[in-house]
Amino acid sequence: VMTVYFVQLDCKVRCMETDEADLFFLIHGSDSIKPEDFTDMKQFMLDIIHKFKIGVDRVRVSVVQYGYAPQTVFSITQYTTNKDVEAAIKRMTLIRELQTVTGKALEFIKDRFKEIDQSDKNRAQRFLITITDQKSEDDVSIPASELRQRGVVVYSIGVEKADHSEMFQIAGDLDRMFYTDNYDALTAIKNKVLRDMCSKEAFSPLYFSSACSKLEVADIIFLIDGSRSIYFKDFITMKVFMETLINKTQVGENRVQFGVIQFSTQTQLEFQLNQYYDKDKLMQAVGDIQQLEGLTSTGKALNFTAKYFDEAQGGRPHERQYLIVITDGEAQDEVYTPAKAIRDKGITVFAIGVYNANNSQLVDIAGSQDQVYHVENFDALGSLEKLISFESCCTGILLKLRRQFPKYRKQQAGLRAQQRL
């Protein structure tokens, strides 16, 4: 009991001392929500803001409710005291719209943050808490990704019929994705959200961007497994991993170039190194990748990939070049020879194995055990100490991915069982 009390007290003190932050609540207001559930949702928001000091130069709060069209309940500058914000939340009424268009609502929130940037670029802390109990009727991945690119820390809370895949796409981080069967349980989620909001990592959403900025010029190709052994939600995880790394680098013709190749039975070029110099378009291209399914022909894929580092295909052989291979299974063909041919061109290869990936094959691909990562193996975290210059950029991402995959696997166990049927 004492330990829990201390954590909550510590969180409260640090949050109360926060100089400046902007907090948006984006809440689902469709006809599917019962009056008592709406009351629970309002109480959740009241509990959250109670931990902060609200004011013009402290924490500012806004609430947006949506169904089909988002509606501002009150703006970020409308109320400047805890008392006024709490009263406004208590007065809220449910809009009771029939549709659930979450992507459109996220776009609306993104525009509000753009307005804040125009008037006050120095407000470092930015938070968005979304609550929904339905699957969206439009795409959420792109607007959510764009929000995170702006430095917004996004929490995705799903209730009842909320879609787990969409929740993950919204948060972009498994530690900021929460699900509960009913609105009564929001109280339990509250403390988890607050602890993360009060953490140093949450207050520094770009906490490893400086390391990535050191990677001034490089060619990076992701070779990703799209075979049928990869479950849909894990495929999304791979895309989020790529988006996260891309977002922390300086993309450009004379800076860092990215390409993506997907493989299963066949190998498919998603886009080559010189195709996207605009980060927003690059991130959208990653989000648009569709899983191939099929078998795991990794050797064939490596052979296919080699030429895309060449100058004729947009590569820059005189600069640093990296290949990141992500797979969860055993290759059904030989990988050593095509992988060595890539390394012999001076390309550094990293192999990330998920779940039951074959370690000996991963070593054959990367050329060294030091450049092989099993994202579910907590005991192997020490190997990250040996990262070379490129890895200093993605160490934080790899650490987080290692922590998250087992947790994510537990959360999705039931869904996977259904997919196998």
Helix/strand layout:
Layout: H1 2-16, E1 21-28, H2 35-49, E2 59-66, E3 71-74, H3 82-91, H4 102-119, E4 125-132, H5 141-149, E5 153-159, H6 164-171, E6 177-180, H7 186-197, H8 200-203, H9 209-213, E7 218-225, H10 232-247, E8 256-263, E9 267-271, H11 279-287, H12 298-305, E10 320-327, H13 336-343, E11 348-353, H14 359-366, E12 372-374, H15 391-411, H16 413-420
Helix pairs in contact: 1-7, 2-3, 2-7, 4-5, 5-6, 5-11, 10-11, 12-13, 13-14
Domain VWFA: 22-193, 219-388
Organism: Callorhinchus milii (Ghost shark)
Protein name: VWFA domain-containing protein
Features:
Rossmann fold; disordered N terminus; 6-stranded mixed sheet; disordered C terminus; 421 residues; alpha/beta; repeat
Describe the structure.
This protein is an alpha/beta fold and 421 residues long. It folds into 2 domains: 2-203, 3-Layer(aba) Sandwich (Rossmann fold); 209-414, von Willebrand factor, type A domain (Rossmann fold). It is built from 16 helices and 12 strands. The strands form 2 sheets. It has a 6-stranded mixed beta sheet, sandwiched between helices. The chain has a 6-stranded mixed beta sheet with strand order 9-8-7-10-11-12, with helices on both faces. A hairpin with a 4-residue loop joins strand 2 (59-66) and strand 3. Helix 1 (2-16) packs across helix 7 and helix 2 runs parallel beside helix 7. The longest helix has 21 residues, at 391-411. The two termini are 43 Å apart. The relative contact order is 0.09. Mean pLDDT is 80; it is low at 1-14, 203-213, 377-390 and 395-421. It is found in: Secreted, Extracellular space, Extracellular matrix. Residues 22-193, 219-388 form the VWFA domain. This is VWFA domain-containing protein. Keywords: Extracellular matrix, Glycoprotein, Hydroxylation, Repeat, Secreted, Signal.
